[in-house]
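# step 3/5: fold
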Amino acid sequence: MESGSGLDPSKSKGSGSGEGKFGAFLKRVEPFLPRKELNPVELRSWAKKTGFVSDYSGETSTKLGETESSAFDLPKGRDHQTDRASSRQTDLDPILGRSRRSDIGSDPESKPGSIEEERGSNRNEAAETPLENEGGKISRDLENGCYYPGGGEGEGGGWPKPIVMKYGLRDDPPSYGPLIYYGLQHYLSLAGSLIFIPLVIVPAMDGSDKDTAAVISTMLLVTGITTILHCYFGTRLPLVQGSSFVYLAPALVVINSEEFRNLTEHKFREIMRELQGAIIVGSLFQCILGSTGLMSLLLRFINPVVVAPTVAAVGLAFFSYGFPQAGTCVEISIPVIVMLLICTLYLRGVSIFGHRIFRIYAVPLSALIVWTYALFLTVGGAYDYKGCNADIPSSNILINECKKHAYTMKHCRTDASNAWTTSPWLRIPYPFQWGFPYFHMRTCIVMIFVSLVASVDSVGTYHATSMLVNAKRPTRGVVSRGVALEGFCSLLAGIWGSGTGSTTLTENIHTINITKVANRRALAIGALFLIFLSFVGKLGAILASIPQALAASVLCFIWALTVALGLSNLRYTQTASFRNITIVGVSLFLGLSIPAYFQQYQPLSTLILPSYYLSFGAASSGPFQTGIIQLDFAMNAVMSLNMVVTFLLAFVLDNTVPGSKEERGVYVWSRAEDMEMDPAMQADYSLPRRVSQFFGCRCCD
């Protein structure tokens, strides 16, 4: 303010007059004190009434700084204003998508109610009212994606460091060389999730090594096709679509049901056709959920407190399978787990030629090293037993001397698989290659529930990825479009017969975080390579030759990572809230305990199934018995799935237990009108022009 200004109490004729005018001004501009139930409309109307100007754009403007300073820093002179305007830099956090000025919020002890105390204690200091500190911050939070309790401050009260991407969504490298490299890098870092699921389900279906190689090739083909579709017609975020662990547990439930465990002929094809039919029906439900707008309504009830335990339960569902299967050959499994921990934790900061090889390629590098070690053990005679046939371990069961060694030879030897000799060099996976699918109500109901859980999993991944790649949150319409396309991708997986549905891999978040590459084009080029490699039958044969103990060890690490990624969604909430702690804890505990109750009703299964399959055999003999066989099977199967029970509990509790939006950390998605006025947002999420014209504008927002 200039000297002699009537609003400057220090320069007025009388102190009482100055204080009166200053108080009158403050009465006109009252600070907005947020209530528990915040309404964005109220915030906007309050800003319009008081003349508040948001600096959300993240641009440093001297004029804007001067305007705000003249409105709120009344006791200061013009000289101080100029210094303040130049120092009020706006730091844009690309992760959280919010801005914070360096001179605001520096005092962690400041509270909304302390303005009167500050005004009375020191008239000569800037009266930094909570109007801007609280109202402006929450307003920007509402616009940018979520409430972030505590101001989102990092360690020591500082603002979290932004993650700088090498290449963003639309930042294309200068040549095709880096595009190819980064595309292949993304898929190599996800190798464990992409190729190890067939190594679990095909042996469980009594499929041959040739069948395992064929399913791996099919999975590579479906992953390539669906990823390209999602990059250009889904949410358009850089997310790999593939066989998800969400579908693995229900697949094992169907495989180990009483109807199929007693089959002796064509067991693999019969089970695969059953899975195909169930996946197709579940995918159609997901398509309807996304395309009709029902998903947009459901998004109002899906928040981090629901997503976190649900995704965590996906990984915890395999705790009874993981190390019991890996422990069949501890001389291989333990080195794999140790190598993975060394690469991801102890060597994560080591850079070779500018690339953090150990962190990015932890899974393929560890698997390759230990696989080579297992080869030396096999060649060196570690698994040669007197009188036992090394070429066909399964035949050794007939020999009394070899019965105790046959299991070890099957799981540890690197030459136990005959996939290389039986698989062709060229094989093109084709639709309905295992036969026409079976459609039964019991398995279709199970997959409908699973597709709902897969959609919830994807919602959390969409939100986290958009924040990670420094983009604005997608609109509800974009999220619904992504869910609908995921349903179509699962439909393709069911038609081709990959054994599981296709959905967004949760591990994408970890991959983008470590590679710092979020380029759609690179992902699409990598997907083209996957499609080409799926035609090479011998490649599937090589991957099918991985010892089962090694595959189970890698999966132990990936499942643990899935649990951690799921629980990381709680960072958007008030983690110290007793409400949130209780909901997550009860959901996870009962999500494990209730299925255990259903799984104990299988007295005959303990004599037939291996111990690591017992938890997936409750569908045929659970406690839910109404006399309707189809319904009994479906309900016993659904209630034996940890992720489904956890989701239902968390969904009901989070949406019925009172709690503020800040406490719950609710997801706030962008509005359709914001997208229409933001060219950058349109470039990130809008469909290609011709496609949007064909489907209509509603598909674009």
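# step 4/5: annotate
The chain has a mean pLDDT of 78.
# step 5/5: archive (pending)
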